[in-house]
Amino acid sequence: MPYVVATLVLLGLLCLLNLLLTVGILRRMRAQPAGRSEPPFVLRPGSAVGEFAVTTTDGEPLTLSSLTGTVAFFSADCAACHDTLPDFLAYARAQGRDHVFAVFGGDEPDTVRALAEVAHVVTAELDGGPVAAAFRNTWTPALYVVADGRVTATAGRVHELPVPAGR
What we know:
CATH superfamily of the largest domain: Glutaredoxin
Order of helices and strands: HEEEHEHEHEE
Helix content: 25-40%
Oligomer: single chain
Distance between the termini: 82 Å
CATH architecture of the largest domain: 3-Layer(aba) Sandwich
Protein name: TlpA-like family protein
Strand content: 15-25%
CATH class of the largest domain: Alpha Beta
InterPro entries: Thioredoxin-like_sf (IPR036249)
Shape: elongated
Number of helices: 4
Largest sheet: 5 strands, mixed
Strand order of the largest sheet: 5-4-3-6-7
Radius of gyration: 24 Å
């Protein structure tokens, strides 16, 4: 009989501990702000972009020294990229093709063609390629604004990008 009582007391204590941990977890979850989390950008405003040298789909060489403007990373298997694409195409048209660069991963010739109308496009390799390595980017969609080899802004959506002066 004493073993049964000891077992019931121990079981009751474990249930009480489980209840306290559950309440603690729920309180922490409520304390976090609602909404989606930001993309995991390694390079933040002020960070230097690494060196790279690639060729665009038009056969033009692209290096860090020739990069000024917006750089976008998209992927074919990313639903958020497809949701963002129409806004990005409109944004890129307004910026001018010479100031917009897109890195696209995956096999979607129609999307690459649409991007190439408004941006210089680099197709990404399986590991992301040299541009993704230079930005240490592992996320799509990811948008960067670059000037003088440094990131000036990052965003996950087009409406989060800063509005250029004079627009």
